[in-house]
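Each lists chain and fold; for instance:
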Amino acid sequence: MKKLLLMMLLAIFMVGCNSKESPADSVLAKVNTTTITKEDFIKKINRLPEWAKNRFKGEAGKKEFLEELIKEELMYQEAKKQGVNKEKEFQDKIKEFEKMTLISILLKNEIEEKAKVDAKEVRDFYDKNQDEFMTGPEVKASHILVNTETEAEDVLKRIQKGEDFSKLAVELSIDKGTAKNSGDLGFFGRGRMVPEFEKAAFSLKPGEVSSPVKTKFGYHIIKVTDKKEGKPRDFEEVKTSIEKRLSVEKQKTVFDSYIEKLKEKANKIEINEETLKTLTVGETPE
């Protein structure tokens, strides 16, 4: 419960309860001179993550959440009574919070709003850079796997003399999983097979048969039966990732330009290199 309350306090930090008079039908509770209204309740519960919000559905859940708001208000009032709001730690955190909040709003106004990416930009990028969104080529191949190079050479000679590759695969391949299917491996792209096998398979044209190829499994005779060239992925499949990418790039450009303008407007920016050298990252401030 303590962890839940802490999470709630962090989530709703910016929203306070109403110390002024509110319409009677809006008031959910009173804590000394402060009222907790429907509006307070809704604003605060909407700041919670979805999984936590679900906990407070139903009559019992709403009552539980209101109890948490009352606890929060009691602690807030007690903290002010004790003068916690005048302590240095509190004042420092308020300054830091104010600073980060102002920067956040400034960035939203000056960067995010000016760096939005529209649908045309996304489509244009896709049309001009389709090579970045290609699915790789694939080959369809069959193989005959044997234990030794001598065996592989004998198999190759039989194929070259006109014997049927499929029948030899069924008869001779020690890869029983594919032998029953005439050695067929189906279509595969790069990165699916061991490097030696992949290099040989992708170098063959449909209908061609390889020389013996050695891998950790033994010796292969490979026959490529079909090939698919790479093709661009559909726009709908990649448009979200393009939009995110363009947004990041645009925001960086706008941000860098904005910072340069601020530096130009600044009266003075000085860096004390000697003091900087004496700093140790992670040290406790005095």
About this structure: The two ends are 35 Å apart (CA to CA).
